[in-house]
């Protein structure tokens, strides 16, 4: 949602957001469906789309989970990159892929 150029959320007043966590925070709107020609907050859109790209993260680039992890929650990564936080963005299955596959298989076969 957050990083996709084709995904957005619509608030109750028609306001457009890029992330569930932004919903209701008017400062984080990127437009309004009642005025579809007007977009704003381009800096936020660019940060979401490009600034938090996990393919630019040196740790992710050398991680074998990258293709399936997809870099974790974009907002947690955004907080790390732009707000100095230290959220763990890694998939909870990192280091436990065997357990995950076994559980997945069990669920499918039950
Ligand atoms: S598991 Fe962690 S280091 Fe690996 S790709 Fe996902 S976020 Fe990046």
Automatic annotation (TrEMBL):
Q: Which residues form a coiled coil?
A: none
Taxonomic superkingdom: Bacteria
Q: Which SUPFAM superfamilies match?
A: Radical SAM enzymes (SSF102114)
Q: Gene3D superfamilies from the entry?
A: Aldolase class I
User: What start and end residues bound the annotated signal peptide?
Assistant: none
Protein name per UniProt = 4Fe4S-binding SPASM domain-containing protein
């Amino acid at each position: 949602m957050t990083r996709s150029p084709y995904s957005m959320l619509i608030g109750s007043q028609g306001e457009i957001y890029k992330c569930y966590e932004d919903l209701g925070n008017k400062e984080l709107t990127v437009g309004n469906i009642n005025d579809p020609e007007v977009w704003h907050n381009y800096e936020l859109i660019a940060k979401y789309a490009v600034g938090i790209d996990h393919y630019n993260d040196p740790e992710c680039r050398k991680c074998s989970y990258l293709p399936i992890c997809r870099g974790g929650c974009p907002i947690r990564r955004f907080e790390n990159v732009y707000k100095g936080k230290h959220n763990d963005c890694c998939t909870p299955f990192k280091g436990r892929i065997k357990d995950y596959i076994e559980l997945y298989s069990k669920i499918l076969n039950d």
